[in-house]
Design goal:
The chain folds into 2 domains: 3-94, K homology (KH) domain (GMP Synthetase, Chain A, domain 3, 2-Layer Sandwich), CATH 3.30.300; 95-126. Helices cover 52% and strands 19% of the residues. The chain contains 4 helices and 3 strands; from the N terminus they run αββααβα. Helix 1 (3-23) crosses helix 3. 17% of the residues are buried.
Length: 126
Amino acid sequence: MSIRTEKVAEEIKHQLANILTRDLAELHLGLVTVTRVRISKDLKNAKIYLSFIGNKEPVKTCIEKVNNRKKQIRMHLGHNMHLRFVPELDFYFDDTIEYASRIDEIIKEIHKDETGSSSEPGLADE
């Protein structure tokens, strides 16, 4: 990514965080985090990755709710940013946090098994 696309992506990320928490609070999505924004070189398309904490609905439903409000989100984005074109937005779930959490659990299980197996009777004396 060029410096310009990186800067635009960061600004979009910042603006979307505000829009999703302030202007679209009625969707009741819990805590929404914009984890990543990937924008095309021509700045006309953006992939937005979101994570949700504290929501009671399935992730798929939350993403659908956000995608159903694309026009409204683009309108807010256009008012808050000075771009020639407001990019088309596509929202996706970012499972990186869940993936990292699962890896952490596996590592803890491995360490627990290692410490548990060495304290078995008869192994320490050998």
